[in-house]
Request: fold
Amino acid sequence: MNHVLSLSAQKVQDQLVHLGYNLKVIEFQETTRTSTDAAARIGCTIGQIVKSLIFKCRKSGKPVLILTSGANRVDVKKIADLTGEPIDRADPEFVRSITGFAIGGIPPIGHSTLIDTYLDEDLLKYETLWAAAGTPNAVFELSPRELHAMTSARIIRVKEE
Ligand code: 5CA
Reply:
């Protein structure tokens, strides 16, 4: 574990402080790029990993952020019902341009633009969660209540079932 955070992880740490949260970004030497990597590194269940997935509305081009459990797959049809238009996975360049971060390290907060955000109801059942913190080896621990408050996300059922 590094004591000095990389620039992108520090940006997330600064944003957490700015928002008034006493939460600590941890950066590992090893990858936490995927939910599986992150759960293995942290020693938590995959369900406790917050995936921050960027989608793009097909007609308007508007970005949407879905915060979902590492255990779930997003049902894009459920999201389309809410956005009023179909959505697709965003390409890496679009993700970087609207968040300021690269895929594998997208945090739930601190993006370079304001993004409509939806929160997977399944994340609320865990006592504690882990989200990406700006790089593919940085994470931070938080409660579902904190995640909801800091993102002002709308809680929805997102999973494929
Ligand atoms: N650091 C981890 C755990 S917190 C993390 O960021 N996980 S994630 O799920 O939020 O981000 C990785 C996800 O990015 C993968 O599940 C995958 O669905 C998505 N992804 C990976 N490559 C691409 C790509 N080329 N285009 C769009 N999405 C991608």
User: Anything to note?
Assistant: The chain has a mean pLDDT of 96. The CA atoms of residues 15 and 110 lie 6 Å apart. Residues 7-156 form a domain with the YbaK protein fold (CATH 3.90.960.10).
